[in-house]
Write a structure and sequence with these properties.
Largest sheet: 2 strands, antiparallel
Number of strands: 2
Radius of gyration: 31 Å
Distance between the termini: 90 Å
Number of helices: 8
Strand content: under 5%
Helix content: 55-70%
Order of helices and strands: HHHHEEHHHH
Length: 164
């Protein structure tokens, strides 16, 4: 078995298969490779050290401040809401539209109405400093505004005026 592979290798050597070949226009090829590397690396090098600041949404709206300290809780814990609020809103949509259910029992056993505008946005009325800050950071345009709140910035501004 080893003899056969040696014979094949020797035959290939005799034909010039393993013979180093001359690179024609080697200088141009090397310059092309350098230019390609520069083009691929440019976006990474250009943005190095310019990472966007991780958002820290402000939840101290006037509406929340009006609540007693022990009632300043969301429907679910903060960590869960940070990671899964869209899943929760999608579940709420399905439960309301498909099953006709309107009530949600939160982690504190408190009963909430499943409504983006009348439950969530009642407290989180600071659209720019709460919702929009994270969505811009993540590059997301939520589609929930298209049905429930036509112009969220104007709605939030009006809501803040009402609170003051």
């Amino acid at each position: 078995m080893v003899d056969k592979s040696n014979k094949v290798i020797n035959a290939l050597k005799e034909t010039g298969f393993f013979k180093p070949r001359k690179i024609y226009d080697g200088g141009k090829v090397i310059v092309g490779i350098i230019i390609l590397f520069a083009l691929v690396a440019f976006p990474l090098l250009y943005n190095m050290g310019k990472a966007a600041k991780v958002p820290d949404p402000k939840v101290n709206t006037p509406e929340i401040q009006k609540l007693p300290e022990k009632e300043r809780v969301c429907v679910e814990p903060k960590k869960y809401m940070t990671e899964n609020h869209m899943k929760l809103l999608n579940d709420w949509r399905d439960w309301v539209v498909r099953e006709g259910s309107r009530d949600y029992i939160g982690f504190t056993k408190k009963k909430y109405t499943m409504s983006l505008q009348n439950t969530c946005l009642e407290c989180h009325s600071n659209y720019d400093n709460f919702c929009n800050e994270c969505h811009k950071y993540a590059g997301i345009t939520p589609y929930c505004w298209s049905c429930h709140v036509e112009k969220p910035e104007e709605w939030a501004a009006g809501k803040l005026k009402e609170e003051k």
